[in-house]
Write a structure and sequence with these properties.
By secondary structure, this protein is α/β, with parallel strands linked by helices. Helix content is 30%, strand content 19%. It contains 9 helices and 22 strands. The protein has a 5-stranded parallel sheet, with helices on one face. A 4-stranded mixed sheet has the order 1-6-5-4, with no helix packed on it. A 4-stranded parallel sheet has the order 3-2-7-22, covered by helices on one side. This is indole-3-pyruvate monooxygenase.
Length: 406
């Protein structure tokens, strides 16, 4: 006799507090703030560790681009023993101690397939492969950098060498003595080029778009810190002029080396669009002496290399895509018009942290960990206020039931 395999029953789990999707810095920050308010929560994480982007998809020599005081999460700072610019591994250890300190235990290997608001029961239903979670509150903490952006470039499939996104790049040691085309001139692209130089590779960096390159420090102070201090007293356009004057004095005019600046100043551009200036940690010196070659733009990829917009054609052993990341919210959050097609809140900072029907977002401010901390505090306070109302009502209902039974 044949047997019939019945589909496994999906488990149902109602969560008393909010469901937080994502156990990166954003999710941990909200969880810590909720813990301080004594509000329970569940964190769902698709990978097998916290801060998976930092642990699995960053290169070995990565350091924080800003001083540690600008990168702390709420309620617990970095150890005093950490340097001004902590390494990738120090930041990961900070995240792990942060989670331990606030007794945060995410449920790992929980890929969210969909999240929907059920209008009938007025709860969010979050489906994973095995469990349907439900809650009055949903916190989207998957952030701006959930998925690598892989551009379509004509001829890419024909290339004979290796093609890799920076999400899988670890060290220039794998590219020793090779000619490498790095597509992208943001912080990742520039730092990968610098790392390649230090391993005797020959990087060619494509700078198709304009970008601001600023010194990481100005006269012994963090450039970001200087800009924020000036911003308290002066108009943003004047702050940008001061920063660019100092930059030209320290680095020279980057236009001369193929790195063209945008017309909008670096701080104004960052606040308006989220586009982060590149902070120089040695790249400009390597560009000046010709160890990093700057190319204008790729027209097409060939079997052995690439053709460029200016007519040049060169051979390469490998291609690295420093083309950034994107949000993945539109792939799983259903029936909600709070986000754009690009997976970013339609409402700009500082009001994009709260939607309707118990929906919250954190890590989408384009203002780094400072923006994350700001939103995490607001979210926890808002949910805690509602939680106390729910708790008070349940205690009242219990008291009435006890009276009726007596």
């Amino acid at each position: 006799m044949g047997s019939c395999n019945k589909p496994q029953q999906q488990q149902q789990q109602h969560v008393q507090g909010p469901i937080i999707i994502g156990a990166g810095p954003s999710g941990l920050a909200v969880a810590a703030c909720l813990s301080e308010h004594k509000v329970p929560f569940v964190i769902l994480e698709r990978h097998n560790c916290i801060a998976s982007l930092w642990q699995n998809k960053t290169y070995d020599r990565l350091k924080l681009h800003l001083p540690k005081q600008f990168c702390e999460l709420p309620l617990k700072g970095f150890p005093h023993t950490f340097p001004k610019y902590p390494t990738k591994y120090q930041f990961i250890s900070y995240m792990e101690s942060y989670a331990s300190h606030f007794n945060i235990h995410p449920i790992f290997n929980q890929t969210v397939e969909s999240a929907d608001f059920d209008k009938g029961s007025k709860v969010w239903v979050v489906k994973t492969q095995e469990v349907d979670y439900s809650s009055r509150w949903l916190v989207v903490a998957t952030g701006e950098n959930a998925e690598p952006v892989v551009p379509r470039i004509h001829g890419m499939e024909l290339f004979n060498g290796d093609v890799a996104h920076t999400s899988v790049y670890k060290s220039g040691s794998e590219y020793r003595n090779k000619k490498v085309l790095v597509i992208g001139c943001g912080n990742s692209g520039m730092e990968v080029c610098l790392d390649l130089c230090r391993h005797n590779a020959k990087p060619y960096m494509v700078a198709r778009n304009t970008v601001h390159v600023l010194p990481r420090e100005m006269f012994g102070f963090s450039t970001f810190g200087v800009a924020m201090a000036l911003y308290k007293w002066f108009p943003i356009k004047l702050v940008d002029k001061i920063i660019l004057l100092a930059t030209n004095f320290i680095l020279g005019n980057t236009n001369h080396y193929g790195i063209k600046r945008p017309k909008t100043g670096p701080i104004e551009l960052k606040l308006a669009t989220g586009k982060t200036p590149v902070l120089d940690v040695g790249q400009v010196a390597q560009i000046k002496c010709g160890n990093i070659k700057v190319m204008e733009g790729v027209k097409e990829i060939t079997r052995n290399g690439a053709k460029f917009m200016d007519g040049q054609e060169k051979e390469f052993d490998a291609i690295i895509l420093a083309t950034g990341y994107k949000s993945n919210v539109p792939t799983w959050l259903k029936g909600c018009d709070f986000f754009t097609e690009d997976g970013m809140p339609k409402t700009p900072f500082p009001h994009g942290w709260k939607g309707e029907q118990g929906l919250y977002t954190v890590g989408f401010t384009r203002r780094g960990l400072q923006g994350t901390s700001c939103d995490a505090i607001k979210i926890a306070e808002d949910i805690a206020e509602q939680w106390r109302t729910v708790e008070d009502k349940s205690h009242c209902d219990s008291h009435i039931i006890l009276l009726n039974n007596s």
